[in-house]
Amino acid sequence: MKYDIIVIGSGPGGYISAVRASQLGKKVAIIEKYSTLGGTCLNVGCIPSKALLDSSHHYYDAVNHFDEHGISVENPTFDFGKMVERKAKVVETTTGGITYLMDKNNVDVFEGLGSFEDATHVKITKNDGSSEIIEGTNIIIATGSKPSTLPFISLDKERVITSTEALKLTEVPKHLIVIGGGVIGLELGTVYKRLGANVTVVEYAPKITPTMDADVSKELTKVLKKQGIKFAVSHGVTSVERNGDEVIVKANNKKGEEVTFTGDYCLVAVGRKAYTEGLGLEKIGVEVNERGQVTTNDHLQTNVSNIYAIGDVVKGAMLAHKAEEEGVVVAEYLAGEKPHIDYNLIPGIVYTWPEVAAVGKTEQELKDAKVDYKVGKFSMRALGRSRASGDTDGFVKVIADKNTDEILGVHMVGARVADLIMEAAVAMEYRASAEDLARICHGHPTYSEAVKEAAKAAWDGKPLNA
Fold first, then answer.
1. Which residue range or ranges hold the Pyridine nucleotide-disulphide oxidoreductase dimerisation domain (predicted)?
2. What phi and psi values does residue 422 have, to the nearest 5 degrees?
3. 318 labeled binding residue
C-alpha cells in the first residue's frame, strides 16, 4: 500500500498533521502502537490530569470556600474511585473523538509498532507478532516522549512512580514526595494535596517553574504554600530508596547538608525525553542530537529529505499545542504551501489554581539580551470580578520595549489565565504595542481587565484601578 504521507505516532502532533494533510488532498496513513489513539497527552497526560485537577478542585472548594458563599455542606467527602472512573470516561470520549476524526478525514489507521525498513517503507509489527509493510512518499515522525528519571533512581512504578502511574493510583498518598518543581510535578502535587495528602516538592533549581519569569515563580510559590504544599528548592536529590510501603529521598541542600524526606509515594517529575525506541533511525541514517532528539531544519525536515519530525521528539518545549502547530506546518509545507511558526509565541501554561500562563520573553531573557524594556503589573486583587469569585491571588505582567512600546512578554498568575494568555499571543502576533492593548475596550467585570490594566501600566505607568 502506498501513501503520500505516513505519520508514525497519533499524539496531538501526529493526528493533527494527518488531518491537515488529508484536508489538503494527501493520501495519509497513521501508525499507532497502542490500541487507542491520542498519544501521551490524551491517554496519560494533559487530558486525564486536567480531569483529576477539576474533580479535586471541586472538592477543595466544597471544603474551603463554599461557606464563604453561604453554601453549607456538612463534612464533604470524596470517592476517589469515582474520580478515577470519571477521568477514564473523559479519556475514552476524547480518544474516541480522534478515531472519529481519522474516519471523517479518510486517514488509514494501522495499529502496531512502526519501524523503518528504508527511507520510504515502514514495517508495522502488530501485537500478535504479524507484520506488514506500507510505503510513503514522505514520512513524519511523531513518536513523542517518555518521562525522564535520574540515573540513580530505580522506578518500580508502584511507590517510586512517574506521571503515568500518578494518574492511575488507587489511593490518595499520605505523603507524596515530588522530585521536580516543574509543570507536571506541581499539577499532580496539587491534585493530591487537595485530596488530603501531604506534599513536598524537591527542586534542584533555586525556584519552582525554573524556566518561567521570576515574578511568576515567586507568586506561585506563595499561593501553593498557602494551600499547604511544602517546597525544598536548591536541593539536589542524591538517592531514592523504597523500604516496603515507605520511600526515603535524600538530598543535599544549598549548604551541602544532607536532608532526608520520607513518604509513601515518590513522584519523579524531572522532565521528559524524546522517544525513538524501535523506530530504526540508525537503519536509514536519520541524525539525532546528544539528547536523543531527532535533528531537523527550519521546515522540520531531517537529514533524510523525505522524512520529517515534529513534537516532543524534536528540540523545543514539550507541549501538545507546539506539536500540533508543527504538525500543521509540515502538512502544509508538503502540500506546497508556505506556513510559518513563531516559537516565541507558543504559550506555556500551568494548570494549578490559580493558573499560570506566559508568552514571549521573561525579564531575565531580556536582561541577558541587553534589551531596554519597561514593565507594567496589575494585581488580580484589584479586579471586581476577582473579588466576586474570591479568586484574588495573582497578577498580570506586561513587558514592553522601552523605546517602541512593542509587547515583548506577558506573564500571568490568576483565575482562567490559561485562556486569557491567548489575548496576549494574538496581540504579539501582530506586534501590538502596550498602548494598543490598553486602548482595547474590555468587558466589565471580567478577569481580562487585568490584561488591559497591566498593558496601561507598561505604556504610561498609570493603570486606572490601582
1. 346-455
2. -70, -25
3. yes
